[in-house]
Amino acid sequence: MIDLKAGLTSRTHSEIFSRERARVVLYRVRLIAALFAVVTPFWAILDHLTLPPHIALRLGIGRFGVSAAFMTVALLCRCEPRLTRMRSGLFLLFIIPAAFFVYSRMVLSGTRLDYIGAAMASGYTFLPFILTSGIAVFPLTFSESVALAAPILAAALAAPFLLPSQSLLPGIDGIAILWLLVLVSGVAAISAAMQLFLMRELFARSSADALTGALNRKTGEEVIALQVKLAARHRYPLALAFLDIDDFKSINDRFGHAAGDRIIVALSTRLRSGLRASDAIVRWGGEEFVLLFPHASAPQAARRIEALLHGTSIIRPDEKMLTASVGIASDTDHPTDWRALVTLADERMYQAKQLGKNRIIGPAPRPDVGQPAPV
Question: Which superfamily does CATH assign the domain made up of 217-361 to?
Answer without folding.
Answer: Reverse transcriptase/Diguanylate cyclase domain (3.30.70.270)
